[in-house]
Backbone:
């Protein structure tokens, strides 16, 4: 707290981390990276009740649909969103990192891939 007050840095979580590091001569980015953990392995592979003849029907869309995967960062109308659900028809549901739903069905032709998903985290750069 003393270092933050001496250097006239406003109070925030990322500024506190900067002060704890102690390198006050470092050049600041003007923002911070916000990461959110997302679920993985959350698919039901088959329908709960088999159809006649004891055949189990698949309950999921393919892993990759038209080159897009779950939690990929895409551009739609020049803004960045994350894919939260996919359909084999090529339409996707888009959400912001905080979970706000943009639109339930967006065609793959209107999307542009910005970043592939990496592990179980989605990342967004936020300006201060």
Residues:
């Amino acid at each position: 707290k003393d270092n933050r007050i001496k250097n006239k840095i406003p109070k925030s979580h990322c500024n506190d981390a900067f002060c704890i590091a102690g390198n006050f001569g470092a050049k600041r980015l003007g923002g911070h990276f916000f990461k959110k953990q997302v679920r993985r392995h959350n698919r039901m592979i088959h329908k709960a009740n088999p159809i006649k003849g004891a055949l189990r029907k698949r309950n999921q869309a393919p892993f990759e649909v038209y080159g897009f995967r779950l939690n990929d960062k895409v551009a739609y109308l020049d803004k960045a969103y994350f894919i939260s659900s996919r359909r084999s028809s090529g339409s996707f549901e888009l959400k912001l990192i905080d979970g706000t739903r943009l639109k339930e069905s967006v065609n793959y032709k209107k999307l542009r891939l910005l970043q592939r998903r990496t592990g179980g985290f989605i990342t967004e750069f936020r300006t201060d």
In short: The radius of gyration is 21 Å. The chain has a mean pLDDT of 83. The helical segments are 2-6, 13-21.
